């Protein structure tokens, strides 16, 4: 099959979700896909999801019109996208990064998108709001399918609804301008860093791009693999909150963005983010019988973890989650 052939060449899992929705549990295909999802998130923490349920038309209007219009706004306007929480507002103007990004909280709810839109366009921009909201809602369905599949596999599906209720969706839209041409250099040197290597702190991230590659994932031997999603695909990445909640059954991979000199890259990433006061604690069902005390991480509230990540100690940690709450670590939380 074509999907399997290209997956073999890609060196990372590619999973076909076509035709599946959140009402599909129990169908034979749901179970087959669920097995692949668990295997992918356990082994490398990410996979390519073929999800044509989000139409090509919607993707084209997002990347072809809306994002260009948004990033063309004056810097002063974009800087209105602020928040008292880390990673919830404008990011950019960092000298060594070819990167600018805006955050839309509650992007799958009309009032969430509207409050962002009215900051950017005080006169209103209903076309932008409708498009972003409908895109986020459709991608949120993939997020829910993946989370439900993982919980089912872990025998922890009774927590699914409560977990969904204690998360919010944030859509981060990012522009990575093409690197200035440097013809004399080898191709790797013609790339510029778009985003430094990091692990996502939240539960899941679902990345959609404008067919300009640049997302790279760390491989088991410490190298990088460039992900090259098809036009109907998304990249699903697990974050630290999911790693901790699943008692390490799900892995949260290191990734970065490299920018080439051919074209500007745009991405839209839907993050599922625990509420700040949510206590991330793996359920008893996931205790590890073979090792005492059975849990790899001490329980913590999500907001404290994110605040730790932006301290000097957090920024210097090779693995922030282990440093903050790994049971082998003596730090008090
Ligand atoms: O732009 C992307 O493709 C992903 C960026 C990313 O990793 C992030 O914003 O956390
Ligand atoms: Fe990320």
What does this structure look like?
Residues 165-274 form the Fe2OG dioxygenase domain. It comes from Musa acuminata subsp. malaccensis. 2-oxoglutarate-dependent dioxygenase essential for auxin catabolism and maintenance of auxin homeostasis in reproductive organs. Catalyzes the irreversible oxidation of indole-3-acetic acid (IAA) to the biologically inactive 2-oxoindole-3-acetic acid (OxIAA). This is 2-oxoglutarate-dependent dioxygenase DAO. The chain is an alpha+beta fold. The chain has a single domain (3-282), classed as B-lactam Antibiotic, Isopenicillin N Synthase, Chain (Jelly Rolls, Sandwich). It has helices at residues 2-10, 28-43, 56-71, 75-78, 110-120, 126-153, 160-165, 240-245, 302-309, 312-316, 320-325; strands at residues 14-16, 46-50, 91-92, 100-105, 167-176, 192-198, 204-209, 215-218, 224-226, 233-238, 255-259, 265-274, 279-280, 300-301. The longest helix is centred in the middle third of the chain and has 28 residues, at 126-153. 38% of the residues are buried. Mean pLDDT is 92; it is low at 1-8. Bound molecules: 2-oxoglutaric acid and fe (ii) ion (FE2). Fe (ii) ion binds at residues 198, 200, 205, 255.
């Amino acid at each position: 099959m074509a999907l399997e052939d290209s997956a073999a060449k890609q060196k990372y899992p590619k999973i076909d979700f076509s035709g599946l929705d959140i009402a599909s549990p129990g169908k034979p295909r749901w179970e087959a896909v669920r097995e692949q999802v668990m295997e992918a998130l356990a082994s490398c923490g990410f996979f390519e999801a073929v999800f044509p349920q989000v139409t090509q038309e919607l993707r084209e209007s997002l990347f072809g019109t809306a994002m260009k219009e948004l990033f063309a706004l004056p810097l002063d306007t974009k800087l209105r996208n602020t928040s008292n929480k880390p990673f919830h507002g404008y990011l950019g103007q960092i000298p060594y990064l070819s990167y600018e990004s805006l955050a839309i909280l509650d992007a799958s709810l009309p009032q969430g998108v509207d409050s962002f839109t009215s900051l950017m366009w005080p006169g209103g921009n209903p076309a932008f709001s409708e498009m972003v909201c409908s895109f986020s809602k459709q991608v949120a369905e993939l997020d829910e399918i993946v989370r439900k599949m993982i919980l089912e596999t872990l025998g922890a599906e009774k927590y699914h609804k409560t977990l969904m209720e204690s998360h919010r969706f944030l859509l981060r839209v990012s522009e990575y301008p093409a690197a200035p041409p440097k013809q004399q250099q080898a191709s790797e040197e013609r790339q510029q860093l778009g985003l430094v290597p990091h692990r996502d702190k939240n539960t899941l991230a679902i990345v959609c791009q404008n067919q300009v590659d640049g997302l790279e994932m760390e491989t088991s031997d410490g190298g990088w693999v460039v992900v090259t999603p098809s036009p109907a695909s998304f990249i699903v990445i697990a974050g630290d909150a999911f790693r901790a909640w699943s008692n390490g059954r799900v892995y949260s991979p290191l990734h970065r963005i490299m920018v080439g000199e051919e074209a500007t890259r745009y991405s839209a990433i839907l993050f599922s983010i625990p509420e700040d006061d949510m206590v991330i604690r793996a359920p008893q069902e996931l205790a590890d019988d073979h090792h005492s005390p059975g849990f790899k991480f001490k329980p913590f509230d999500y907001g404290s973890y994110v605040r730790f990540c932006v301290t000097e100690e957090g920024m210097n940690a090779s693995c922030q989650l282990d440093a903050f709450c790994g049971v082998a670590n003596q730090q008090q939380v």
